[in-house]
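Field: COMPLEX_INPUT
Field: COMPONENT_COUNT = two
Field: RESIDUE_TOTAL = 758
Field: MODE = joint
Values follow.
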Amino acid sequence: MADDQMNGSQILLKALEEQGVDVIFGYPGGAVLPIYDEIFKQDAIRHILVRHEQGAMHAAEGYARSTGKVGVVLVTSGPGATNTVTGLTDALMDSIPVVCLTGQVPTHLIGNDAFQEADITGITRPCTKHNYLVKDVNALARTVHEAFYVARSGRPGPVLVDLPKDVMTAMGDYTPVSRVTHRTYKPRMKGDINLIRRAVDIMAAAKRPILYCGGGIINSGPAASQLLTEFVRLTGFPCTLTVMGLGAFPASDPLYLGMLGMHGTYEANLAMHGCDVMVAIGARFDDRITGRLADFSPNSTKIHIDIDPSSINKNVPVDVGIVGDVGHVLEDMIKVWKAEQASPDQKALAEWWKSIDRWRARDCLRYENSTKVIKPQYALQRLYELTKDRDDVYITTEVGQHQMWAAQHYRFDKPNHWMTSGGLGTMGYGLPAAMGVQVAHPKALVIDIAGEASVIMNIQEMSTIAQYRLPVKVFILNNEYMGMVRQWQELLYGGRYAESYMDSLPDFVKLAEAFQAVGLRATKPDEVDDVIREMIETDRAVIADIRVDKLENCFPMIPSGAAHNEMLLGPGDEAETPVAEEGMVLV
Amino acid sequence: MTTQTETEKQTTIAVLVDNEPGVLARVIGLFSGRGYNIESLTVAEVDTQEGLSRITIVTSGTPMVIEQIKAQLERLVPVHKVCDLTMDGAYVDRELALVKVKSTGEARVESLRVAEIFRARVVDSTSESFVFEIVGDTGKLDAFINLMEPLGLMDVSRTGVAAIARGARPL
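Field: COMPLEX_OUTPUT
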């Protein structure tokens, strides 16, 4: 045996260190005991002990989204591994780079229905970008390096590496990252310059253009957001962002139309519907964006820039599809735009902005405020006003009404400060994600804007938050309902609120205290500011229980199966045609 | 934007992949998970030194769906190359079938006669049965099997389609 040989667990930790990993979110168990023994013996990598493996996954996602680095999870075999499936699917849908290391029973027991055995590579094949089962200790380092490469390259995503216990104790050789190149996976970064020229020509001739941008900008890195901002200002075109893209372009810029889609702004959706040139950048024409496909932006020439070739022409056929990293493509686009001295018809553009300003004047996010009951929108506006002057605020959310209100009312000027489960819509995402963000940014103000139903799905992570003294703020808009479910039941199911009322909720103030956090409560509008201020000033974890209007609905809303120009603006606004049968089957 | 009304078309796709555990499951899972059709699927290692397998898939869909299938296949990490044989010009496709026929008397003689017309070979015979081996495109095999039906057809085993582009160019 050569002197430089190490056991599998040492090789794993060395590979993680070489990949620049500084923190792992994990939970031990029988199959990963050798790895935990090595973790015990070193200081380079910090281990955060979560309370449930799903929490580890979302924490790693929050860590990854707020830093741009790969998040790392370590769990045991069987139930430890299967508990990561929701988080893996969430990361796949939102293109978040995470490496999930799972323990596995020893290779000679695989397939024997051994204790805590699960075929996790089989189970996670459709919900990971790629996965590996390591059967040879000498392939371990190479596999881990490959896993990180695959997770962060191209369209990022989750990669799972299954580690049988005997491989982790066997002696083997380490392969440094410098000696690992991938045989097949080499995503295209630069866009085809001829297509970029064509796209610029189409844009230069546009009369009613719009830029529709998504999470791809964030994934490309902060430089892409700067390039996007430069390009939007260069062209003077209106820009709208998806829920995944918030922060990619400054919300404070007058060229910004707000979020688009099902709960997007009136001006963004009507501009999408009426435009003559649409440029989709790092966005994927999801059904929450397009509404009824047949009536989606019917008269526009469409340009689509995406790093994933399979995103182009998937839901909506486009006229120019450019495969490449959006940062690179935007850089080239700006160069071509300047070189060709592109000058769109300013008169037409001014007319277009006039229409947009007319739509803006509808003030679609307006709501009837009250002096008696806290409106959820009011609470979020106050939260925004009282935190907007800090540049270290990170917002995560759970899923539902509060998430959409947060997306509408909290305004982001920078990327990587907004973490929400966009594609999968995972209730219980926000609290562990906030935990991951706070681990990455210990001094920052990290707020989980939550609903009382969602937050309970992973409330056990309050215990992790207590253990590591993470000053996470949980801002619960408590309406005692699964609000979005209730809203749909009201609008589409005759107000029959089947199982959407949350009876027997915990006392969130006492719950906070039980987890060594500070519990605060606001029940009247004039208490909101004080609670928010106290929450911010407290240097420990806080649960703020904001008792909001129970029956408030989230508007604007495009009913399912409707087109962009058929949106509902508020409670007084009836759908022109009731939701059709084909709309009812859509979610 | 007439894609919704475009008709479905049969397409043969060749995929070169790393011959590693789970790679076939990845390809099949992609088809079932995204609701694509598989009409035929053939796989075998073609390069032992490089550890490469070649998968031939016959599928059908609108042009937009076929493009999606190719893009989704290309996205799989162990995939080296995806080639649309139907679109890229002329190609040869062949399938092999083993066909068991049990009969006596006139029917037995007739089955031999049909086999001769189709250039099928007898690879096993007993006093009351034949196993024929037939090679050809899918249509020829279908026709042969249909003709054997009234002549005592007992059992069929088919390989699925293997296909390769005509001309000098490799995949």
